[in-house]
Q: What sequence folds into this?
């Protein structure tokens, strides 16, 4: 349990660091983005909005410490200001409408990619030296392809040439959002291509990592002993080799997750998917700083939570972490 | 905790780094690695000469809009008639510069942080590690997007800065772990003892040993940086008038190239990124395989050896005549033979060469016998143990021989010709093995009870769960582990307890033979004694036979009935333990026993044997021991001596030694005559 407490503490510090960074960035960056933004709106902003913008960039009259305290207050009340790209919708509303799409898409795809990639890596590692090794250059190529470019190719083939799947969007406009069959089936149908992209592009990394760990683990004495015990091959492969080989994969989940999330966000842009990635794209185009900051916070906190879940699973998988 | 496990992996892998600082260059010889190097080199050349060989100005518009590839425009044109090939050539330069420079900055940062954290330790380590871990967990791309959006569009330099700030953490963590383990190495300790300055230790002693790891981290960061740059450019967050692969894709996207079907617009840029990324990864695999020798081994000689494993039946027939000869000489106490190994040969298949690790070994094991196998490391004794249980892995394979096992009912089977399922059922039921380090031989994620139980489950499917549980408790009690520890994991037990648990696992199915490969070497002397006594007690009670392998000769003499001494893959002496102790015959055995009888003059003690074990890839001609043998004569470099039967007392088996000193039919010298022979030989030598 002490391990979990330590990890929890680490995530708290990380969250604090990320959120404080978010506070600091607008204040230390060169130039005057606030004026540029106010200029751009040509007086269409209400005085309150102008004031909010100045506060965001630390141009108010409060002391830095007071600004910091106010900032934290805003974070906890979910008040991230007004979005300029979607003016005058509050940032929290924009986030609320898009986060669900991204969360479902990315969590399902990440888990699928991990399971398929690790599973294939297990088999390729187990049968090392066989023809399966020739898969490695192919998966290397797949994992080197930029997600968004792969997405473009997938769209070209399956949406434009073959017309199997819709070109873009998250659901058919004829459906109403809600818990009804029409909407859900439509959403799944629209998510198929983005999901395919993310899963295929992320499999390669997991596969190669797992294969290498599998080979390293297979020369461990406990795997040899399992074989010497005359255990069925499946048990040797799963309970002795793979269960141990996948532990490092789990602990590198943190790094990979950030990578997958980053790739998926750009993928959304290609599909014009109604998730947070497309919103981030629009925010960046419109220099909508409050929205970008809100997105950064939401993504960071989500990734931290996912990492904590991975740590919990790790403790479940590895008894050595359960004590001490 | 999660991070520590990965660290251990990283630390373990450093051994080879130290062994040869620039040996990693050899990795480039592998075809895949070479392909990677060539791909990367081509891109580097294009990055330099690209703008000079570009046929058009990449930004100049023309009337030839949206042309597919043609002789004028090899890669077609954009919506405004710009030449895509020229854009690609200019773009290669920008993308490569961003990738390489960002990786340079990130790597420098990670080397500084990693080395400092690992070397200084203490509070600086805590803080730097925390910083690295925070940067690892925060998703890089959104952070990069925000940083890039805030930066005024100064072009590539800002992007390079942003990417290096977000990309250094992983390398720093790996390098920290490496440094931590290097720091404890002898040569670093020595440098510190001689009072070298910290900075000079870091840069003279530690840094060069991490070149391979740093190179791997650098190449990985280049890939990451090029991908990130492309993503940022694609999102329109860089200067979109500066041509890079990402910018090309950005313009393709905003101009709806997809909808107009102009695939030639976006295919080249993405393909270039993927190809370069693949090239860099292939180079990195080469480096990985160098850093982690186990990965390398998976590739060498595997095909041949695995084919051999699949078809274990197709072996050279052993030399029958010799076996019959052996059968006739094995006099002494007649017990049931339970295992008869004939002419066993185990080869290590290397690249272009094979090494005989076990060479023409013939051994007999009787019921209830403790057969001790002694030898230095590299003598083939562990390979023999693995071969007996058929646990050898490629690149090792059994090239000849047979291993006849006699079942209770008198039927005889050759272990080497068993099929997969037959072998699986044979294992543990009839023959179990105990490894040197129980720490490594027990599965760290299963409780010891479970590890005993799963052997029972696999072989006695009809047994009920409660019967199995009862058997587990019985076994733990048998080896002296409190039965309430059945749910304990290996890491919760002490070294001695783990070895007892290991033995309990071995006894689970009441096997007829237990092979023990240095079962006590990793333990301290007191625990060692307890374990040995336990093994003897259990053997007397349960009546199994033991093949006991160790380099500890005194232990072996004490607990074995018979002893086989191995040298360079061959058995050089076979005798009853008592007879062996009283009168070792082979010059090597005498060396092993610590002192040679003096030939003339005052008695002197010899500490061990001069010289070192032979390189099995290039064994000496004749008797492998001749370069180290004080009694060697001319014929020793010509003839490989077979085992000669000797006289002397024999309870279990008649002594034999593979030494030309005992050549000559029937004239078997006893100790005294050996001395005479020795003296005569010495005289002749003078």
A:
């Amino acid at each position: 349990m002490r391990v979990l407490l330590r990890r929890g503490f680490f995530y708290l510090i990380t969250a604090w660091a990320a959120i404080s960074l978010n506070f600091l960035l607008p204040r230390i960056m060169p130039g005057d983005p606030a004026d540029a933004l106010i200029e751009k709106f040509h007086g269409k902003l209400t005085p309150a909005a102008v004031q909010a913008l100045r506060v965001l960039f630390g141009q108010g009259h409060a002391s830095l410490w007071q600004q910091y305290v106010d900032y934290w207050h805003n974070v906890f009340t979910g008040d991230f200001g007004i979005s300029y790209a979607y003016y005058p919708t509050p940032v929290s509303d924009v986030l609320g409408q898009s986060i669900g799409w991204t969360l479902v898409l990315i969590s399902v795809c990440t888990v699928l990619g991990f399971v398929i990639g690790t599973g294939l890596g297990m088999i390729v590692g187990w049968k090392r030296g066989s023809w399966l090794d020739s898969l490695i250059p192919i998966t290397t190529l797949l994992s080197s392809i930029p997600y968004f470019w792969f997405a473009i190719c997938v769209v070209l083939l399956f949406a434009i040439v073959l017309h199997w799947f819709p070109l873009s969007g998250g659901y058919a406009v004829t459906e109403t959002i809600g818990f009804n069959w029409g909407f859900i089936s439509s959403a799944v149908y629209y998510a198929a291509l983005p999901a395919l992209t993310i899963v295929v592009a992320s499999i390669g990394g997991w596969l190669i990592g797992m294969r290498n760990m599998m080979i390293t683990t297979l020369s461990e004495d406990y795997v040899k002993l399992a074989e010497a015990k005359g255990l069925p091959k499946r048990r040797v492969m799963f309970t002795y080799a793979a269960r141990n080989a996948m532990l490092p994969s789990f602990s590198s989940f943190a790094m990979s997750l950030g990578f997958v999330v980053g790739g998926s966000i750009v993928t959304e842009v290609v599909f014009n998917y109604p998730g947070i990635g497309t919103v981030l794209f629009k925010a960046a185009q419109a220099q909508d700083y409050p929205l970008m900051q809100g997105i950064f916070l939401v993504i960071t906190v989500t990734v931290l939570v996912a990492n904590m879940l991975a740590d919990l699973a790790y403790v479940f998988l590895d008894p050595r972490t359960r004590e001490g | 905790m999660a991070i520590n496990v990965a660290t251990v992996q990283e630390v373990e892998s450093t051994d080879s780094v130290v062994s040869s600082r620039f040996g990693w260059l050899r990795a480039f010889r592998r075809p895949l690695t070479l392909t990677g190097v060539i791909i990367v080199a081509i891109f580097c050349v294009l990055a330099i000469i690209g703008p000079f060989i570009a046929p058009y100005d990449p930004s100049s518009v023309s009337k030839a809009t949206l042309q597919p590839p043609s002789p004028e425009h090899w890669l077609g044109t954009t919506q405004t008639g710009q030449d895509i090939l020229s854009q690609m050539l200019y773009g290669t330069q920008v993308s490569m510069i961003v990738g390489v420079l960002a990786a340079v900055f990130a790597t420098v940062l990670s080397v500084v942080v990693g080395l400092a954290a690992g070397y200084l330790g203490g509070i600086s380590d805590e803080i730097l590690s925390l910083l690295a871990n925070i940067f690892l967990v925060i998703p890089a791309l959104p952070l990069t997007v925000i940083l890039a959006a805030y930066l005024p569009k100064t072009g590539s330099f800002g992007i390079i800065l942003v990417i290096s700030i977000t990309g250094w953490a992983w390398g720093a963590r790996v390098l920290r772990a490496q440094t931590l383990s290097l720091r404890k190495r002898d040569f670093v300790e020595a440098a510190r003892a001689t009072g070298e300055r910290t900075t000079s230790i870091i840069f003279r002693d530690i840094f060069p040993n991490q070149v391979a790891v740093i190179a791997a981290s650098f190449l990985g960061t280049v890939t990451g940086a090029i991908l990130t740059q492309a993503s940022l450019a694609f999102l329109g967050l860089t200067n979109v008038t500066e041509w890079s692969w990402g910018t090309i894709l950005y313009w393709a996207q905003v101009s709806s190239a997809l909808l107009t079907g102009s695939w030639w617009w976006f295919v080249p840029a993405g393909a270039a990124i993927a190809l370069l990324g693949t090239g860099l990864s292939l180079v990195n695999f080469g480096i990985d395989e160098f850093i982690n020798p186990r990965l390398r081994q998976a590739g060498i000689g595997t095909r041949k050896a695995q084919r051999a494993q699949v078809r274990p039946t197709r072996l050279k027939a052993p030399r029958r005549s010799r076996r019959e000869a052996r059968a006739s000489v094995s006099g002494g106490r007649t017990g049931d033979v339970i295992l008869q190994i004939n002419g066993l040969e185990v080869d290590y298949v290397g690249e272009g060469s094979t090494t005989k690790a076990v060479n023409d070994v013939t051994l007999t094991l009787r019921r209830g016998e403790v057969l001790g196998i002694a030898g230095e490391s590299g003598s083939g004794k562990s390979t023999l143990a693995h071969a007996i249980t058929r646990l050898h892995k490629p690149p090792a394979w059994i090239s000849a021989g047979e291993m006849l096992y006699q079942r209770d009912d008198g039927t005889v089977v050759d272990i080497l010709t068993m099929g997969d399922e037959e072998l699986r059922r044979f294992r543990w039921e009839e023959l179990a093995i105990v490894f040197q380090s129980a720490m490594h031989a027990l599965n760290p994620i299963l409780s010891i009870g479970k590890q005993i139980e799963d052997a029972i489950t696999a072989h006695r499917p009809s047994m009920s769960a409660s019967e199995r549980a009862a058997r587990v408790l019985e076994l733990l009690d048998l080896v002296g582990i409190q039965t309430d520890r059945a749910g304990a994991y290996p890491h919760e037990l002490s070294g001695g307890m783990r070895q007892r648990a290991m033995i309990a696992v071995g006894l689970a199915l009441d096997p007829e033979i237990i092979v023990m490969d240095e079962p006590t070497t990793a333990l301290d002397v007191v625990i060692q004694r307890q374990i040995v006594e336990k093994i003897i007690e259990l053997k007397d009670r349960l009546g199994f036979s033991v093949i006991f392998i160790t380099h500890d000769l005194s232990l072996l003499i004490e607990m074995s009935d018979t002893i086989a001494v191995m040298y360079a893959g061959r058995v050089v002496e076979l005798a009853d333990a008592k007879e062996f102790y009283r009168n070792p015959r082979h010059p090597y055995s005498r060396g092993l026993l610590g002192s040679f009888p003096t030939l003339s003059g005052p008695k002197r003690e010899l500490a061990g044997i001069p010289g070192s074990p032979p390189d099995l890839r290039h064994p000496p001609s004749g008797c492998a021991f001749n370069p180290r043998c004080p009694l060697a004569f001319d014929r020793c470099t010509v003839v490989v001596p077979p085992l000669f039967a000797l006289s002397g007392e024999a309870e279990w088996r008649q002594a034999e030694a593979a030494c030309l000193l005992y050549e000559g039919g029937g004239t078997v010298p006893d100790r005294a005559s050996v001395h005479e022979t020795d003296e005569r030989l010495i005289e002749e030598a003078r």
User: Anything to note?
Assistant: Chain A touches chain B through 100 residues (CB under 8 Å). DSSP finds 13 helices and no strands in chain A. The mean pLDDT of chain A is 83. Chain A has two domains: 18-77, 98-322.
